[in-house]
Write a structure and sequence with these properties.
This protein is an all-alpha fold and 275 residues long. It has one domain (3-272). 71% of the residues lie in helices and 1% in strands. A two-stranded antiparallel ribbon has the order 1-2. Helix 8 packs antiparallel against helix 11 (215-226).
């Protein structure tokens, strides 16, 4: 690849990223409304079930149930924002903008990477807003914890955005994309361990949880976020077990990174076969 082509692709990645982030940032009602669901799960659903546990945690967790699901709610914000950011592809196709991008002198990988980075940035911004709620549920966030958790949030968001792009680029209507995403998102969220620990569950449910890529994103986020809190990381619930062995955070990161690379490759391929 020539230097001129490389700079053109990098500029294209930046412009696509900037356009998506700018559209998101200007849509303030969307940002505010998208916080309603995390707040609902955290303060209503979480508080209700916490009282059912007598104020205790879940499955051996030493803190409150609300503290346990807080990282899961952060992951939920990442999941929903990442997946629905890919809806812009169906929107751009509807109004002809996608065709203009695809006929531009850009590689298909630049288009896919730009869209993936744009969606990931939106998701991390949304997840960052949820992080601000941490003091309300007695979760401590030190500067070191924030520095450690943001790359984990970005990796999870990037993999999910790439998944959304790969699907959105092949679906021909916004309605079809929304139906497929709704079908995928809720199982991915509930199977990830966001709302309950993945210990003592039936074997068939554990298999499905291990096939869920969100599982390997929420668990390290939970470990890092709770590491500075008085409840600690609660070893009884932290970690994904495979064949009787608990995965380390580094291993979970590798699994999620491989999934992100595969989804990005599928997204690039999907753009390459666009008419």
């Amino acid at each position: 690849m020539s230097t001129r082509r490389l700079w053109a692709d990098l500029r294209g990645v930046y412009i696509i990223w900037y356009r998506d982030v700018l559209r998101f940032w200007r849509d303030r009602p969307r940002i505010i409304a998208s916080l309603a669901q995390p707040a609902l799960y955290l303060f209503i659903f979480g508080s209700g079930l916490s009282s059912s546990f007598g104020g205790g945690g879940a499955g051996g967790f030493s803190g409150s149930y609300v503290q346990f699901i807080f990282p899961g709610v952060v992951g939920m914000a990442l999941l929903f924002t990442s997946i629905f950011s890919a809806l812009s592809i169906a929107w751009d196709r509807e109004f002809g903008f996608l065709k203009e991008v695809l006929v531009a002198p850009l590689s298909r990988s630049a288009v896919a990477i730009g869209k993936a980075l744009g969606g990931s940035t939106q998701a991390v911004l949304q997840g960052g807003i949820v992080l601000v709620m941490a003091p309300l549920v007695d979760v401590t966030l030190t500067p070191l914890v924030v520095i450690q958790v943001i790359p984990l949030m970005f990796l999870l968001a990037f993999s999910l955005t790439s998944l959304g792009i790969a699907l959105a680029s092949r679906l021909k209507s916004m309605e079809g994309f929304q139906v497929v995403m709704q079908f995928l998102m809720m199982p991915m969220f509930f199977l990830s361990g966001a709302l309950f620990p993945l210990v003592g569950i039936p074997d068939w449910l554990k298999v499905l949880a291990h096939l869920d890529p969100v599982t390997y994103g929420i668990d390290p986020i939970r470990r890092v976020i709770l590491s500075a809190s008085s409840v600690s990381a609660a070893q009884a619930v932290a970690g994904v077990e495979i064949f009787g062995r608990t995965l380390t955070i580094a291993e979970e990161i590798v699994i999620l990174a491989v999934f992100a690379a595969l989804m990005l490759a599928f997204a690039v391929r999907a753009f390459a076969v666009q008419e």
